[in-house]
Specification:
The longest helix has 14 residues. By secondary structure, the chain is mostly beta strands. The chain has one helix and 14 strands. 6% of the residues lie in helices and 57% in strands. The strands form two sheets. The protein has a twelve-stranded antiparallel beta barrel. A two-stranded antiparallel sheet has the order 10-11.
């Protein structure tokens, strides 16, 4: 990967403020159910940044195509483990391997008869923003709460991010939200919201926080397939300003 000097300097200055943002490789608000026992789902997350942060010298240099392969297997009725491989192509088309993570997740059993869905995941692995930086160890604790009201579906993920190596160690807060209205069980129209507020001990000024919001479409064309697309817009100066996302998943089971 080749970066212009001014862009590299700006990235380094902003690294402390953006380290807790959800990686653009995998942009997703999670639902509470885990995959069925002995089933596996293969998901490919594709995200393209049309315009980066307004605080960059040249936001167009943030035009990365990021892709993540996520493989999740159900090991019990209420337990799954996911594995991620992160990669990306820089604005010049050069490929970069960006890291791996593992994610165990457990959900509240239906027999408990809670009035809403709930699960908890924990991700951990190594990651780097690009191939000019070192890998650092990081992860997140993700509580997941969701509820269906007729044709409406709501999900809330109050994520806790952490970095345990490198110069940017700390713990941050990155809440996410999704609202969808389903039409004839075939198409879901909704919005998704993502944010990164900074460390718990040092919440960033609004200008330096990351807030993204945009429309999404879920397609329910077949029970074995998962398809979602959307376009997110940055609401603050330090947010990526325009991101297109496409998620395609395929379940394999009985």
């Amino acid at each position: 990967m080749r970066l212009k000097p001014a862009y590299l300097i700006t990235c380094l200055l902003l690294m402390q403020n953006s380290i807790f943002a959800q990686a653009d490789n995998e942009i997703q608000v999670y639902a509470s159910p885990t995959i069925q026992h002995k089933w596996t789902i293969f998901e490919l997350h594709n995200n393209y940044t049309f315009k980066g942060s307004n605080l960059l010298t040249n936001p167009k240099n943030a035009r990365w195509y990021n892709t993540t392969l996520e493989i999740t297997h159900g090991f019990g009725k209420n337990f799954e483990i996911g594995f991620y491989t992160f990669a990306g192509f820089d604005p010049n088309g050069s490929y970069s391997y960006l890291g791996n993570q593992i994610r165990p997740r457990v959900t509240v059993p239906e027999k408990w008869k809670w009035s809403f869905g709930a699960s908890l995941s924990a991700e951990f692995g190594f990651f780097r923003p690009n191939d000019t930086t070192d890998f650092f160890w990081q992860g997140e604790i993700r509580p997941i709460i969701d509820k269906t009201y007729g044709n409406f579906y709501l999900a809330f993920n109050p994520n806790i991010d952490f970095v345990v190596s490198g110069d940017d160690k700390g713990v941050g807060f990155s809440p996410q939200f999704k609202a969808v209205y389903t039409i004839q069980q075939k198409v879901g129209l909704g919005i998704e919201y993502y944010s990164s507020l900074g460390e718990f001990s040092d919440i960033l000024p609004m200008k330096m926080q990351e807030h993204l919001l945009g429309p999404i479409i879920d397609l329910y064309i077949h029970p074995m397939w998962e398809i979602q697309t959307g376009f997110l817009f940055g609401l603050t100066e330090n947010s990526n300003q325009q991101i297109f996302k496409l998620l395609v998943g395929r379940r394999i089971g009985k």
